[in-house]
Fold these 3 entries.
Entry 1:
Amino acid sequence: MNLLRSEILRAIAATLGLAFLTSSAGSAATDIPAISAKDLADRLSGLQDGTSYVRLRLAVKQPDGATKIVLQLQVKERRTQSAADVLYQVLWPKERKGESVLLHKADGRPPFGSLFMPPDTVTSLNASQMDDALFGSDLSYRDVIENFFGWENQAIVGNEVLDRASCVILESRPGKGELSTYASVRSWIDTRRLVPLRVEKYLPAGRLACRIDTTRVGTDDKGHSIPADLTVRGPREDSVTELVGSRITHDVAYTDRDFAREGLGEISAPSSASE
């Protein structure tokens, strides 16, 4: 079964609070693999480039396990080193089918986007709204459009074992002109599979704003290891978000209309990603 790719939900790639089997925390330089922080970040950022089509299940739950929201989504992405277009659309339940969020990001410019509510209401999303919740989940719009692996400042700050996998801890900080609410992001990278197993995002005051844990690692249509299932905890204490990937297709043929306001009411899958 083809599953989620690591960038999408990096961004959803953020952070989580479920328990991993954790041991041997530390920052001994002798335990860190011989790869520079910049090279590691560049490789992770490069995995996001190109086009993709994803199907996933998003569930927002209360800490006691009670379900608040369940959505089936499709995600269309087009990313380069300097820009990104991302479209999230609700496929199910029927009463929410067609709800869409379109986001854009380019170097040196704050992200922006549009919110579509059927049958024909389109609302602009400006930079000040990027920290709002995506479909009522614990992910923000910023979390699914921002690529912190592409930030200027990258450093390896430690190593730790998560879920029996040896990880390096990569700290990403925005440079001049890289606008973000987050002051830093720490990612626990399984360097053997090149997969983020945990991402933590911090505000300027040092407070943890979001944690995403990879709860299952799968394989995509290109044979790459990717986070297949994610759990996200944000600032709200009354909810947790689970993301379960069911399908991913890369190298999808998109047109500019697929990422334009006038195309927001169209929810069919691209022909190159047909089942």
Entry 2:
Amino acid sequence: MTKDAFGTVVDALARRDLTAAELEERLARAGFEPKARADAVARAADAGYLDDGRVASERARHLAARDASDAAIRAELERRGVSDELAEAALAAVTPEAERAARLARRLGGGPRAARALVRKGFPDDLVERTPGLQIAE
């Protein structure tokens, strides 16, 4: 039996939370027509199975707990097709970036090595310079 687009969406969402954009992409790869894709995604949203805001919030919370920078979190949410508005709302709800930077710097023992790690993880230079415990040689 050939599965319809909505069945494919339900199966995909049973495995993990996905955004509308990710579902659209999966359906396109599976060969569904644009109208069938749009209808299936709309139906899933109407049924409460699909919520980009929830996906964005959960992903941002997970990445922030791992001391990711705002830039890294924004990039991940953008890659998953989350709107700028939802991404900003998700970032506003997590631990402030300065606290995450300080926590990571402490975990890495401070100093220049920790400062370089913060920059590599996408923390802004001015924030790295202000982070306690990072005596950066000029």
Entry 3:
Amino acid sequence: MMAHRTDHHRLPGTALRVVLGGLLLALLSPARSHGQERTILSPRDSVSLALDTNVVTVNYGRPSMRGRKIMGHLVPWNTVWRTGANQATHFTTTFDMLLAGTPIPRGTYTLWTIPGPDLWKIIINRQTRQWGTQYDASQDLARFDVTPRTLASVVDTFTVRLSATSRTSGIMTLAWENTAVPVAFEKSDRIRPLSPLDSTMATLDGRTVSITYSRPYARGRTVWGVVVPLDSVWRTGANLATVLTTDSDIRIGDTPVPRGSYSLYTIPHDESLTLIINRRAGRVMPRYEAAEDLARIEMKREKPAMTIDPFTIRLVPLGPGSATLRLGWADRVFTAPVTAD
């Protein structure tokens, strides 16, 4: 029986240490590799702020610079950005609020932005739980512009901060690299989310053309001929005046429009739309004065691929010096070319 316990099963001391070392390395290496695989470059984070008995929360991914140029490069200008990384950034408010003056009912939304060197567009979208590349503009609740500011020191990791300014108000700040974008908000019991504020912008030969307007919803009503009477001057939106601002001389259709700010009105017809460029500009309740008309421009009617709701104005870029102006609601879209003059 003892004959089977021979020394040929034993390893010399040096060989044994080599084998044990190899086993230890084999055990440690997968764990180290597995840990590396789980390294998250843009970890998820949430920030919350309590105002009285209510809470606002932002849940987002936090990318870092990692030696890269961010604004205008990794985050391109004039392009929809997920405002973070990975899954879409989510914005939740348990109270009705005015976000930069724009009515936002309580609920959960996704937060998107269109960064620019001088203006950022903030987008509040109804779709939730999607990946950050799955933006659906048709589900926008509101769009509005805010002005960024330059930071004295670099913020290496994208950060969202929520800070109170009073018992019922606060500021949401988006910060990365040398840019901070502050967005003020306040509780409101009298919000009117029926026609949120929006804007659209295009760059023509390096100059900016923008339109600011309100977006009424159909809410089950017949739009053309009922909500919007035919053959009558319409404010082209709701609430405040719709304003066109251009940094340089442009043409809409064949009509020259000098640089400046103007109010936009329209006269809807059954098969066309007359666009009115009016010199009386300003974000006030519109009072149309025909004596201030600069020009009247006929826009073509087209049939949209799907129903448009709410009312939407878009400046769609076509090239360095041209864009298409599109006004759409319900089953109608009206278009006119816009070019640098």
